[in-house]
Amino acid sequence: MHPNDAIDQPFSPGYGSLTPKTPGGQLFTIFYALVGIPLTLLTLKAMGNHYNHYIKKLIILIETRCLKRTEVKGLEGKVCLGDITVAILYLFIASILSCTTQNWTFLQSVYAWFITLTTVGFGDLIP
């Protein structure tokens, strides 16, 4: 395992193409992942909270200024829907770009990105 590859370990999909071969490398990977995975989860949580803050502000802005509502009902559900919408848009934009750069069909691109983003990582298609 190359030292630069260790940066990817805490949140890699696990395609199996990068594995530590020596006992020292395997031990390092275990300890690195024990620290790196919780730190990655904390970072993702903080990013999600930050992102949701702006989604909430946008929903409140649209409902109060554009739709002239005095009260925003079902805000948490609308934020969840916004999150799902952005995730789908991200998946589709990445897939469209992969169609041109990887010479894949759109379905292959969506599949490859979905497998990668969910960290399943079968390794049959790698974006």
UniProtKB/TrEMBL annotation:
Its main location: membrane. The chain crosses the membrane at residues 27-47, 79-98, 110-126. GO terms for cellular component: plasma membrane. GO terms for molecular function: outward rectifier potassium channel activity; potassium ion leak channel activity. Residues 14-49, 86-127 form the Potassium channel domain. Keywords: Ion channel, Ion transport, Membrane, Transmembrane, Transmembrane helix, Transport. InterPro entries: 2pore_dom_K_chnl, K_chnl_dom. One of its GO terms (biological process) is potassium ion transmembrane transport. It is a multi-pass membrane protein. Pfam families: Ion_trans_2. It comes from the Eukaryota. It is found in: Membrane. Belongs to the two pore domain potassium channel (TC 1.A.1.8) family. This is Potassium channel domain-containing protein. It comes from Nematostella vectensis (Starlet sea anemone).
